[in-house]
Design a protein that fits this description.
OB fold (Dihydrolipoamide Acetyltransferase, E2P); 2 helices; 5 strands; elongated
């Protein structure tokens, strides 16, 4: 009986040592989107998708009233004009002399409703 107890204690100590020495890899990694950008940099907005001033331009206004000009080629936006959608994207790179504060590069679109009401 003493040998079993000693073996159990030794194996338990070995297992515990291995668990404590192996770093928790999940805690050390950041979730990333398809572009390799950290997800925390993404902005998600649910609102009505509208056509912009020029062809190929689109806008969305969030519930707080903030309006974004949408860019990007990964998602087909024209098929969802007039729909309530949830857009996920990252702040777009600034144009020369311009501000990127109101521009969003769309990486994902989910249709919520076929109407904006």
């Amino acid at each position: 009986m003493f040998v079993r107890t000693k073996l159990f204690v030794s194996l338990s100590a070995l297992f515990l040592g291995v668990v404590l020495l192996v770093p928790p890899t999940r805690a050390l990694t950041q979730d990333k989107n398809a572009d390799g950008q950290a997800k925390k940099d993404n902005i998600t907005i649910t609102g009505c998708l509208a056509k912009g001033a020029a062809d190929g331009e689109f806008t969305i206004a969030g519930p707080d009233g903030t309006s974004y000009q949408l860019t990007g080629t990964k998602v087909t936006l024209k098929d969802h004009v007039g729909h309530k959608v949830t857009i996920t994207g990252k702040p777009a790179k600034a144009d020369e002399g311009g501000s990127s504060a109101a521009k969003l590069e769309v990486t994902n679109l989910k249709m919520v409703s076929t109407t904006c009401s």
